[in-house]
Design a protein that fits this description.
By secondary structure, this protein is mostly beta strands. It is built from 2 helices and 74 strands. It is elongated and about 160 Å long.
């Protein structure tokens, strides 16, 4: 197969739509229907009329083709119209070989003569098409190649045509010399879009106008970029309710010249189109008039009583504004100072207006550019010190909480006074807050709930006439745990522990500890749930030896806990522990048990130190004492006094040591 780069197809099509440039003339422009200038970004499309033919040495390649694109510029007195080819296709090729476009390239249109006649010539640059056919591979490429003419609609009486007749240079290909040095290319393309296309008409009219401001008058500039003078026969206004034409019409505009006689006055916001016509040359020029209003916005920071702030008025519109009126909705709150802004340019701002806060509150400033433009800004005037207090909730009786005092003002607060409305409900602890910086806080004050009720704490800055309050609502916690057990307990005996919940909620016991399991052993089962105003007696405790042990239960969900301490003692205890030689002391035997003891044996370990006197106690009732027995110290030393209830099984024994001195 053979590859041919057919830049010709690409160029022809691009011409129809692409950009164009004048070679040999200093200016090129395109005109559409009614003589209106074709602007940049206009889509131009063309289709071949029949086949375009490339007569290469390897054989003729004949195809239908189509092209489309957008103009890159509008042309003018110093430039041509040009543009890139955006789409290029080849179909219905008679040989069955379809060319492949690698580089679409660009096109330029030039004036065909020294004077405008609606026609032009075409130049192609950088278009390459590869075709492989009959075992050959050839590449053809245009380099500022003249490829044909543009016949305008004024000449054809309908659609413009691109008449291709060119010699396209060969730029490469594997077939080498078999491709020849160039190949003739011929064909005709019909411009389908736009429906009317002419090159460099005698008169080309266009207009320019700035965006107008409502209530003001602006100038329209009409131009003739053609080669002959324009005679203006008509000048309509599409929307006289928006823009009214004033001044005088432009009667004649010289070739390459302009006219600024025409003015327009913006009556209201909107758009209008002004049009001029030269009926002799079928030329039309248009300009869109945009009438706009300025847009006023205001900015001001939060004010402090007694201080002055700057107001910034901005014009975010595209036309100037003149502030003719400025109102203050609450002059008792904020006083306007400084001077009015007057005129503010489009996109500009003004900071000449000031405002002073007189008291706490809000005021709205309004700036107006009559008849219908206005901007508003609201200033909030605050005290220099703003005190606010907070405390965590809920607040339970018996708990201590931190009070947070905040100063949201612009000045530092000096707290000179702090009161508590109900000291029987809430107790203040910690230290008072004395100074709180602007936007700062203080957490040195604490409060403890003593009982259910409410108390209000108030902090005052008398210098700045500021105060803040916080109310603490104390309530009983949902779970209140308490414990009970018989104490003292007798070694060897088992006792019931009663856990109570005097709160209103249900307690869930998640933890139970025993501080000394060698003194008291827990038995029975743990209490897991205790309803409000209920109790649980599942837990038992047995005294193992003399000492103390504390049992604790916890409800971690409700931050509640309770403890109970059991003191374990022997069943029979005696005393005293000291005596003086030669003196007699009374012995007290105490029965700590729950049943009577019968003392049948009583002795002293050293009768030379301590002599027992009096009578034996005999029977000692439960939880009772006996003082029948006496002891006389005979000399310095120690002796152990023992009493035994022999009928008990096992025998109950009590001992104590007396030291004689």
């Amino acid at each position: 197969m053979k590859s041919l780069k057919l830049s010709i197809f690409a160029m022809a099509m691009a011409t129809a739509f692409a950009a164009l440039s004048v070679a040999g003339a200093s200016a090129t422009t395109l005109k559409g229907a009614e003589g209106k200038a074709i602007e940049a970004g206009t889509t131009i499309s063309a289709e071949s009329e029949g086949h375009a033919v490339l007569d290469a040495p390897i054989g003729k390649l004949e195809c239908n083709s189509a092209v489309s694109g957008k103009t890159e510029n509008a042309g003018g007195s110093t430039e041509t119209v040009k543009g890139p080819i955006e789409s290029l296709s080849f179909t219905n090729c008679t040989s069955g070989v379809v060319p492949t476009v690698i580089t679409k390239g660009t096109l330029e249109i030039h004036t065909s003569g020294e004077t405008a006649n609606d026609n032009g010539t075409l130049t192609s640059n950088g278009t390459e098409v590869t075709v492989e056919a009959f075992g050959f591979h050839c590449i053809f490429k245009t380099t500022n190649t003249d490829i044909g003419t543009v016949t305008g609609s004024a000449t054809t009486g309908g659609s413009a045509t691109l008449d291709i007749s060119a010699t396209i240079p060969r730029s490469g290909g594997r077939a080498g010399a078999f491709c020849g040095s160039s190949a003739p290319w011929t064909g005709s393309y019909k411009v389908t879009t736009p429906s009317t296309l002419n090159v460099d008409s005698a008169v080309v009219l266009s207009g320019e106008a700035p965006t107008g401001s409502v209530g003001e008058t602006s100038t329209v500039t009409w131009k003739d970029t053609g080669n002959e003078s324009a005679t203006i026969a008509d000048e309509p206004d599409s929307n006289e309710a928006v823009a009214k034409t004033v001044g005088t019409a432009c009667a004649t505009i010289a070739a390459g010249g302009s006219c600024t006689n025409r003015k327009f006055e913006c009556l209201k916001e909107g758009e209008a189109t002004l049009t001029i016509r030269d009926t002799t040359h079928s030329a039309v020029g248009e300009v869109k008039i945009k009438c706009d209003l300025g847009k006023i916005t205001g900015e001001v920071g939060t004010g402090t009583i007694g201080e002055t702030n700057t107001v910034t008025w901005k014009n975010t519109g595209v036309v100037p504004v003149t502030i003719e009126d400025e109102l203050d909705s609450e002059s008792a709150v904020a006083e306007t100072l400084g001077s009015g802004c007057g005129t503010i340019a489009a996109g500009g701002s003004c900071t000449s207006r000031k405002v002073k806060c007189l008291k706490e509150g809000e005021a709205t400033l309004t700036a107006r550019d009559t008849p219908s433009v206005e901007g508003k800004v609201t200033i909030k005037c605050d005290k220099p010190v703003i005190l606010k207090g907070s405390v965590p909730t809920p607040d339970y009786v018996g708990e201590t909480y931190t009070v947070t005092w905040k100063n949201e003002g612009s000045k530092s607060a000096t707290v000179a006074d702090e009161t508590n409305s109900a000291e029987t409900v809430v107790e203040t602890t910690g230290t008072a807050c004395t100074t709180i910086a602007s936007e700062g806080s203080c957490t040195t004050r604490k409060v403890k709930c003593l009982k259910a009720g409410e108390a209000t704490l108030t902090a005052r800055d008398t210098t700045n006439s500021a105060e803040g309050s916080v109310t603490i609502k104390c309530e009983n916690p949902p779970v209140i745990l308490k414990g009970k057990v018989t104490t003292p307990g007798v070694v060897g005996e088992t006792y019931t522990v009663t856990w109570e919940n005097t709160g209103t909620g249900t307690a869930t016991i998640s933890d139970e500890t025993n501080s000394s399991s060698t003194v008291a052993e827990t038995t029975g089962t743990a209490c897991t749930t205790i309803a409000g105003s209920s109790s649980c007696t599942n837990r038992k405790v047995k005294c193992l030896k003399v000492g103390e042990s504390t049992l604790t239960v916890r409800d971690t969900t409700n931050s509640a806990e309770a403890s109970v301490t059991i003191k374990c003692v022997n069943a029979l205890e005696g005393g005293p522990s000291t005596g003086k030689v030669g003196e007699t002391v009374t012995v007290t035997w105490t029965n700590n048990g729950e049943s009577a003891l019968v003392i049948e044996d009583e002795s002293t370990s050293d009768g030379t130190v301590a002599e027992t006197l009096g009578t034996s106690c005999g029977t000692i009732a439960a939880t009772s004492s006996c003082t029948n027995r006496k002891i006389k110290c005979l000399k310095a030393g120690e002796a152990t006094i023992t009493a035994i209830d022999t009928p008990a099984t096992p025998a109950t024994e009590g001992k104590f040591v007396i030291k004689c001195s």
